[in-house]
Amino acid sequence: MKALVLLASLSVVCLAQRPQRCASPPLLSGSLSVSTSSEKLMAFARYSYDAQGQRIRLREYGSFKNKSFHFDALLLYKQGVMYKINSRNHTCCKKPLRVDFHPLAIPNNASLLGQVVLGSSSGPGEGVLVNTWAGELQMKKGTAKYMSTVTEFGCFPVSTLFHSKRIGWVMTSFFNNVRGLPDPQLLNPPPFCKGARLEKDDEDDPVTFFSTF
């Protein structure tokens, strides 16, 4: 009987230690870098993320096909609109956003690839325990593959490898993540966007968190 109780206890411990699918904090800020396998795109961005209000702000700069660019966008999924913001000229371009909000979370159909320590496991504080998951997403045109790595504690995003036939592989690395929103106003349209009219959507594919970069 004691052996059975001990075995049951060990089973519970093992189940508790197995990585679980998780969601990142609902309010998150930080920075990220983006690059493509074709080497046509290299960019860095600061982001503000609100899963509760379904809002994302991206302020990005980088190079595309050897040409530098700056991109500032506010995605309001509940309203179904996206603002392309030019703070220097105080102008806004308002476009439809016809896609569902996808939170920073590990999908239910994702498969666990493994758990590793980034850095060192030799001593406390020398490494970060992370889990890597993989799966497929249904897009407007076919499916896309992804591989996401998040921290075991807190479920903070570390990196995402995303592949579609249209753009190939896209690598996104997250850093300087902070729980919360140091500046909540970034997730509201600036006052000079108040009179912006909704323009016709002339893009083949809808704007998503991945295709915005």
Please provide a written account of the structure.
It is a single chain. This protein is mostly beta strands and 213 residues long. It has an eleven-stranded antiparallel β-sheet, with no helix packed on it. The N and C termini lie far apart (59 Å). It has one helix and eleven strands; from the N terminus they run H-E-E-E-E-E-E-E-E-E-E-E.
Query: What Rg do the Cα atoms give?
Result: 20 Å
Strand order of the largest sheet: 6-5-4-3-2-1-11-10-9-8-7
Low-confidence segments, given as residue ranges, are 1-16, 204-213
Structural class: mainly beta
Shape: globular
Order of helices and strands: HEEEEEEEEEEE
- How widely separated are the two ends? 59 Å
Let me know the largest β-sheet: 11 strands, antiparallel
- Residue-averaged pLDDT: 84
What is the helix fraction of residues, given as a range? under 10%
Oligomer: single chain
Please indicate the percent range of residues in DSSP E strands (runs of 2 or more).
over 45%
Tally of contiguous helical segments:
1
Task: Give the tally of β-strands.
Answer: 11
Write the layout of secondary structure elements.
Blueprint: H1 2-17, E1 27-36, E2 41-50, E3 55-64, E4 67-76, E5 81-86, E6 91-96, E7 111-119, E8 127-138, E9 143-151, E10 157-164, E11 168-179
